[in-house]
């Protein structure tokens, strides 16, 4: 048997006889939607889509697949490498690496490949007008303007340079209408980049060599002046080596002291044994003592008052001459050490200049 569903309750009327649910009453009062019709704005939107989307896309596709010449890409990648072995210049101090960090060289190459100088070199070697002029392809063709500015702008369209600053790697992608032309352009770029790196290294090596030569020249001049100053001192004082002269004078002074002591002993013995005060031997010993004492005083006075060569002129005391000679000797020794160091640096710089410290490693 089928169950009978309860009949819906009629809306309860409120006071005054109006329905209690106002939303139901308003919904019943709304009219139904009419069917959509084509409007003029619909035609305008459709025409706008065709003109600005479909037509350009079709025109580009027709040009690319129907008129444009085929392009071929040639890719080369390389990095600037340097010798890993330590340079002998580093052990001398004061002389740094020949050309700095390889990353700075890579930055230079990155800008050099996109510069007008590279465009001028490629155009001179391969004739960019012959490679990139296609009369049937007006958009991708080079055109009739062969000024360096126009060639540089077109070069940036056909050459893509990718540079990884963290690893120092450079990758070049060259487009051309002929695969052989693309490969030739890549080869020229690689060769010119290698020449650029070698030129940078040559300039750096020339700077290092010039610096070492200047240091050697200054060291030689300093050594000459030090030797001339010592020779002038020896000629002025007539003392070759003050230390040897002091040793000789001290030996003479010690000998005089010994003779003075012996003479005093003889005088003491003579005084004890002689009975006469008018003994001529007493006067002879006294004159001998006076002579020895005078020589001792003169030798001591030369150390305090001055040497016998300059004492009359009053130029300097012996101690001052000794201090002056020691200062000249120190300057001479320093000049000799500086000369030996500069000579070694110069020889090593010349040896390093003959080595190739930078090169391109293609991958």
Helix content: 55-70%
Q: pLDDT under 50 segments (min length 5)?
A: 85-102, 306-315
Report the total helices.
10
Order of helices and strands: HHEHHHHEEHHHHE
Q: What is the distance, rounded to the nearest whole angstrom, between the alpha carbons of the first and last residues?
A: 90 Å
The structural class is: alpha+beta
Principal-axis shape equals rod-shaped
How large, in whole angstroms, is the Cα Rg? Answer: 53 Å
What's the β-strand tally?
A: 4
Largest β-sheet summary: 4 strands, antiparallel
What fraction strand?
A: 5-15%
Strand line-up in the sheet with most strands: 2-3-1-4
**What is the mean pLDDT?**
76
Which short descriptors sum up this protein?
single chain, 363 residues, alpha+beta, 4-stranded antiparallel beta sheet, 10 helices
Give the helices and strands, then pairings.
Blueprint: H1 22-29, H2 40-67, E1 72-82, H3 102-113, H4 116-126, H5 128-132, H6 148-158, E2 159-164, E3 169-176, H7 179-237, H8 242-273, H9 280-304, H10 318-353, E4 358-362
Antiparallel strand pairs: 1-3, 1-4, 2-3
Helix pairs in contact: 3-7, 4-7, 7-10, 8-9
Describe the structure.
The chain is α+β, with helices and mostly antiparallel strands and about 375 residues long. It has helices spanning about 20-30, 40-65, 100-115, 115-125, 130, 150-160, 180-235, 240-275, 280-305, 320-355; strands at about 70-80, 160-165, 170-175, 360. The protein has a 4-stranded antiparallel beta sheet with strand order 2-3-1-4. The longest helix is centred in the middle third of the chain and has 59 residues, at about 180-235. It is rod-shaped and about 175 Å long. The model is unreliable at about 85-100 and about 305-315 (pLDDT under 50).
